[in-house]
Amino acid sequence: MLRKNLLITGLPGVGKTTVIRKVLALLTREVKFDGFFTEEVREKGERIGFQIVTADGQKAWLAKRGFPSPHKVGKYGVNVEAIGSVAIPALKRALKQADIVVIDEIAKMELSHPAFAEVVWECLESSKPVLGVIQRTQLPFINKVKAREDVQIFEVTHQNRNELPEKIAKELAQLLCKP
Question: pTM to 2 decimals?
Fold first, then answer.
């Protein structure tokens, strides 16, 4: 059975977002995707935070060192407003207009927004394939997502990260060709 929700996990910095971008590049131009990516931001070689970057190019700080927020993940203050104004609308737009919903990532930072989990669940329940990243952490919502029968998890490692995009792209292509 092909599972329609393909989620990538792995250690920080192993290349999860890079794998997703390579998968999307391997698919034909006729395949439309929408959603968001989480990108690390570095200054002078040091990570200072993360930005949400939508498929159509919108950017907003997801979390940043020193950002004043009651929601903290490690040394980063989480910008809950940006999740609500940039990430969630990108997912809702993907549900309406895209062939593939991209969620990079389902993690503690993004889950700081009370509506994020609900919208992710809506994406997973939809008829559209989801290509996403899911944190390795054990959190109730993350565990619930991983336990779904229609979720397939791919662990990215330094050894497999070059072959994984082609494997995942083939699975997505099969899903999209189903009548």
Answer: 0.94
